[in-house]
Amino acid sequence: MKKMEISHFINTIIEEDIRTGKHKRAITRFPPEPNGLLHLGHARAIITNYTMAKNHGGYFNLRFDDTNPVKEDISFVEAIKKDIAWLGCEWKNLFFASDYFEEMYKRAVLLIENGKAFVDDLTADEIKEYRGNLTTPGKNSPYRERTIEENLKLFKNMRDGVYPDSSKVLRVKIDMTSPNMNMRDPIIYRIQRAHHHNTGDKWCIYPMYDYAHPIEDAIEGITHSLCSLEFEDHRPLYDWVVKNCEMENIPRQIEFGKLRIVGAVGGKRYIKQLVDGKKVMGWDDPRLITLSGLRRRGVPSEAITDFIHALGLPKSQGETEIDMLDQIIREHLASTAPRTNAILDPLKLVIDNYPEDKVEYLEAENNRDNEELGTRLIPFSKYVFIEREDFIEQKPNKKWKRLALGIEVRLMHAYFVKANSIVRDEKGNITEVHCTYDIETKSGSGFKDRKPNGNIHYVDATHNLPAEIRLFDDLILENMGKDIPYVDKVNPDSLIIKNGFIEENMDPQVGDRFQFTRNGYFCVDKDTTKDLLVFNRIVSLRSSYKKK
RNA sequence: UGGGCUAUGGCCAAGUGGUUAAGGCACCGGACUUUGACUCCGGGAUCGAUAGUUCGACUCUAUCUAGCCCAGCCA
Q1: Cα A177 to Cα A545: distance, rounded to the nearest angstrom
Q2: Which residue stretches of A355-431 are H helix?
Q3: What is the Cα–Cα distance from A402 to A545, expressed in whole angstroms?
Q4: How far is the C-alpha of A246 from the C-alpha of A420, rounded, in Å?
């Protein structure tokens, strides 16, 4: 694997902080909310935080940001941990934001004592109205000037469950006329009677993200809190909370651009819609760019980390083509995945001059670039399957490097065969191609008297294993317009199932990866049963073949 | 019409006043080939626009344009 040079603006900032003695090392974190699974976009945040800590003598924490029990589900916690571990980003500490509820409460009391927070009785609609909008400033709440004593009592009552849900909130006093909406006296606590996976029914008030997050970072001694660009406008508030809550450690939030993939469903909420709407097999559907989906598809996690590093860490807002990831995946698999033959769309070839009951076993390398993977024996008999697309009746032009009537090709690892005639069914479809082989041309014999019109692969028709082979295409039809929800734009052909055959000489386990000759890289899917192998195509091979 | 951020070839992206403007992906040629794979050769941008500063600007200044984000008691 190529070593990636890491030199982006955040790396520069951290190096500078260490050089000037501001910090001795970088301590970072990744703070997912357990309300869904992680996707490729999160991989940038995870890998960036992890790598910066690792490269700068520090460590990386995993912290579940579980401050809103109505939206969260403990079941996602284990799945998220599995994804992050899969990426190889080891966390030093595993924390939950809810571990800090008591501390957060105390800091809120401190804010009230210092006259910096107040309990507001305005309704949600009134708060919205008082907030103003993008172009007009907001107005102070009529409750803003309550006395410290009254606020203290009210806030304690909020905690003690005296008031109904949503009847009061705790707000911080900043500036209702700020052009930054986040600074218009933001709400930091709401009343919400909901069972929390960690704290049970202990609390009926929960802190808001903008208040909780900086405190979490500060408590953990995070030095650099790396997140995506949409939190840029929140940074002044983040800094305000750290300062006014009198936190000892002062973390710094730095934002980078979000990773978007052309044509992919990005964003947890959209993926969730597809999962909940049963439009996909689940969070781990191989057509999804969730980490679990990519893993199930067969993508090596190293390819993902390489991909993230290769992209760099810009603040610009582009859309990356998935081809870049595909090529990195191929590079990872090229020398590690054993080759085998598989026929996805079989066409029977009958070798007329080959003995009826004979079966030969021909030796083949499992990977020409990696001798350690050894060799295998491939059966060969009078009846073999080739790909239907590898045969055409009349060779159309000199570019055609496959089989055609009167044309001779090599069956890889076996012999030259020449097609002589075809058999059709009553509908006119070709059901068999009859040909003759030349025993002189056996693979490995060194035969050089003439060149075949190409090399095609085969699977013996009498000795093989049937397999279900799944091919994937874009999940979403983009040409339907961007106002249509994803659930209504699912490409019906995004999953193509082929019932094909693979070599009989294997006993693949779920997760094993192979290169199917000329068809791409494939991985054994978890749907495999003892009766039927199921493969996912991870990526196709590149092809320079152009029709015409 | 408020604020924040961004703008280098089809895509991603180096570059921080003087370089023939890196590299990867994609694409197009060609060589090689028992995978139309791999590998190998070759191909293309004047840097959102305009006006300045300067001997000299992708890099500095001003103005403009375009895109993204912000008006949850979500994160």
Answers
A1: 63
A2: none
A3: 12
A4: 87
CB A241 within 8 A of CB A211: yes
Which stretches of A151-246 are assigned E, i.e. beta strand? 169-172, 187-191, 205-207, 224-228
- Please choose, from the candidates A232, A269, A227, A251, the residue with its C-alpha nearest in 3D space to the C-alpha of residue A37: A269
* Cα torsion through A393, A399, A403, A407, rounded to 10: 80
- The span from the CA of A413 to the CA of A410, in Å, is 8
Distance A84 CA to B58 C1' (A): 39
A299 CB-contact burial (10 Å; exposed 0-12 / middle 13-18 / buried 19+): buried
Closest CA relative to residue A106, chosen from A243, A215, A222: A215
**For strand B, is any atom closer than 7 Å to the CB of A42?**
no
Question: What's the full length of chain A, in residues?
Answer: 548
d(CA A66, CA A196): 9
CA A332 / C1′ B38 distance in Å = 13
Q: What is the pLDDT of residue A2?
A: 36
Nucleotide nearest A179 (Cα, C1'):
B3
Which residue has its C-alpha nearest to nucleotide B35's C1'? A518
ipTM score here? Answer: 0.96
For residues A456 and A441, what is the distance between their CA atoms, to the nearest angstrom?
A: 14
What residues contact residue A79 under an 8 Å CB cut-off, 6+ apart?
Answer: A37, A283, A292
CA angle at A66 for the pair A60 and A70, rounded to the nearest 5°: 160
Task: For residues A146 and A120, give the distance between their C-alpha atoms in angstroms, rounded to a whole number.
Answer: 9
Asked if A371 CB < 7 A from strand B, the reply is no
pLDDT digits (tens, 9 = 90+) for A386-397: 999 999 999 998
In this structure, is the CB of residue A330 within 7 Å of any atom belonging to strand B?
Answer: yes
- The whole-number pLDDT of residue A4 equals 47
Predicted TM-score of the model (pTM): 0.95
Quick check: A432 and A422 in contact, CB under 8 A? yes
